[in-house]
Amino acid sequence: MKRRNFVKKTVLSSMATLIGVDIVFGTTMPNGYQPIILQDPDPYKMFNKDKGMEVLNDRPWNIEAKAHLLNDKITPNKFMFIRNNGLIPENLESKTWTLTIDGESVKQQKTYTLADLKSKFTEYTYQLTLECGGNGRSEFDPPAKGNQWTVGAVSCAQWTGVRLRDILEDTGIKDNAVYIGYHAADTHLSGDPKKEPISRGVPMSKALQDETLLAYRMNGEDIPLAHGYPLRLVAGGWPASVSGKWVNRISIRNKIHDGTKMTGTAYRIPCESIAPGEKVKDEDMCIIESMPVKSLITYPKSGAMIDQGKKLDIRGHAWAGELEVTKMEYSIDFGATWKECPIEKPVNRLAWQHFSASVDFPKKGYYEVWAKATDSKGTSQPMILPGWNPKGYLNNACHRIAIKVK
Ligand SMILES: Nc1nc2c(c(=O)[nH]1)N[C@H]1C(S)=C(S)[C@@H](COP(=O)(O)O)O[C@H]1N2
Ligand SMILES: [Mo]
Predict the structure, then answer these.
(1) Closest ligand (CA of 81)
(2) What residue numbers bound the domain in which 145 lies?
(3) What DSSP state is assigned to residue 195?
(4) Cβ(233) to ligand 1 under 6 A?
(5) Same structural domain for residues 16 and 114?
(6) Distance CA 91, CA 41 (A)
(7) How far, in Å, CA of 324 to CA of 159, rounded?
(8) Collapsing DSSP states into helix, strand and coil, what is residue 12?
(9) Residue 27 confidence class, pLDDT cut points 50, 70, 90
(10) Taking the mean position of all CA atoms in its chain, how far away is CA 394?
C-alpha cells in the first residue's frame, strides 16, 4: 500500500508538471489512469480518417492508405494520405487569410484575400492525382530514410479554385521569371519561426498550366485542415510536395526556387542511374518533375479467395504524371505473359484513369495478379524495383495482389 502511494505521488507530480498546474483531486484518481489532457489524440477522429489507414509518424503526422481503400474513382478525405513535414497550423481564419504574390520577377506585388480570389477570377474544378515522391520507399534496399510508404501515398480528389496563371496575369510577370516557390503557414518541428518545414515550387511552364490551381475546395467542401485549409496550391502529376498546403505567399523567382527541400537529396534523384548505395555528387542530382507511370489494383484486397471456375473481377487506377496511360495489362504468371485490359480516358488531364478485367484462373492454387501500365510515350512500369536513389523516390514497380483459388 505504502509503495503504491509513493509511486502515485511521483507520477502525480510529473503529470502536474506536464499539465502545468496541480491536479486538484489527483489523490483520488484511479491508479494507472491517464488524465484526458495527456491522452494521445486519436488521429482517426482528428482527421476523419478510416480506421484502415496506417499512421507512419505522429510528429509530424504522416498517414497512408492501403491499395484496397483507394477503390473510389474520386478519393474521399477518409482515404486520403497525409504527408506533413512540419506542424499543422492552428487557429486558421479563412476570413482574414491572404495570399501575397511577390519575388524578384513579379511586376507588381499584390495581396489577395480569399474573397478577392473568388470574386476576381474564374473558378475551375479538376480531379488531380497527387502522389508523394516517396511513395513505395519501403521497398528500397539499402533502405532510404524517411516515412516508409508502401503504396498508399497517392490520391485523386476533386480540387476547386482559381488558376495560378490568372493570378499571375493580374500581377504581371517579368521576362526573366524562371520558377515559382510557395510559402505556407505550417511551422518547423524545431519551433523556430524563421525556419520553413518545406518551401518548394515548379518551373513557370508548370505554374502556367490550365490545371495548376490555387484551390479552396476539395471534393466540393472546404479543404480539410490536414490537406491545406483554407488555400492550397495543386499541381497534379508532379511529386505532391510541390502542391503547397496552407499557402499564403507565392514568389515568382528569377532562378530555380531555393526554398527548404529544393536542394541536396530532397526530392532530387541522380540525373543518371547509379548502383544501389552509391554516393552521388550534388551537381549530379536532378529535381524530380513529372511522376512516372504507375498503377494500383484497388479491388479485390490482396489475399482474396475465389472458388474454382469463377472469374475474378479486378479494378484499379493508373496514372502517368504529365502523360496519359495508353495501355493496361495484367499477368497471373509472375510476369511471364500479359493480357491487355481496357483503360478509361481520364476525366481531365492529370487525373488517374480506371481499369478493370475479368480474370480466369486455370486451376486451384495460389496466384498473384500483377498490373502494368504503359504511358503515351511507350514507357511501362518495371516489374521489379526501379533505379535506386538516396531518398528512395519514384518506386513505380508493378503492383501485385495475392489470390487463392479453392
Ligand atoms: N505547407 C506544406 N505543404 C505541403 C507539405 C508540407 O509539409 N507543408 N507536404 C508536401 C508533401 S511532401 C506532400 S506528399 C503533399 C501531401 O499532401 P496531402 O497531405 O494533402 O496528401 O503535400 C505537400 N505540401
Ligand atoms: Mo511528399
Answers:
(1) 1
(2) 94-287
(3) -
(4) no
(5) no
(6) 17
(7) 19
(8) helix
(9) confident
(10) 13
